[in-house]
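so my prof wants the structure for this chain in the tokens format not the other one, which i didnt know existed until like an hour ago. anyway here's the sequence
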Amino acid sequence: MIKYVVKRFVQMIVVLFIVSLLVFLLTNFIGDPVDMLVPENATLEQIESARARLGLDKPLPVQYGIFIRDVLHGNFGKSYTYGKPAMDLIFERMPATLELVAVAACLVLCIAIPLGVYAGAYPKRASSKLIMSGSILGISLPSFWVGMMMIYIFAVVLRLLPASGRGNTVMVGNVALSIFAPGGIRYVILPAITLALTNVATMLRLTRSGILENMRQDYIKFARAKGVPAKSILFGHALK
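here's what i got, hopefully its the right format
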């Protein structure tokens, strides 16, 4: 057991090292952060001063070594855009991310599982085929396009929901949440649906596949022979 844990830990360290190296190289090759910090009419001296202040005038291996050293000490650097520590920005935005994920997960569970059970229990019905056709559409459509279309329809054309922002927040313990604030849920609906759409389609198909397989098992036939109601068979036996 100890050997297995040590092996997995070493593998984790190697993976983290490779990921950190890739992220570091990509962030250095996709653009120069100094361009975001200096004005457009900045002189060469100002540009070089900003580069030296950020440590970007050093060779890449040295920059990476400094990056690893800081990470090991719990220092993840500062945001080039906001000038704040990166971890502070992450924790500042974490509540909004968590409530968005929570709402999207609830949508996935409440929509995908019942529809998947129904489609798996009655695969030959026209409604089941319609559900599966919709799931293919949900998987095929890219999330960014769905998001833009929903903003255009519900925010721009119909003006029913806000296009961006978070709205008012209320303190729940030490966490600021918007879903419990008056009107706050309106800001979560569009991004949550966009986030959930692909996951709904995927889980729906997985649930249907599992139900189809289990409905052929002997214990399901035995439950039917005993006169167990269809709802109990589906949700109490097959869905497990």
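also thought this was worth mentioning. The radius of gyration is 26 Å.
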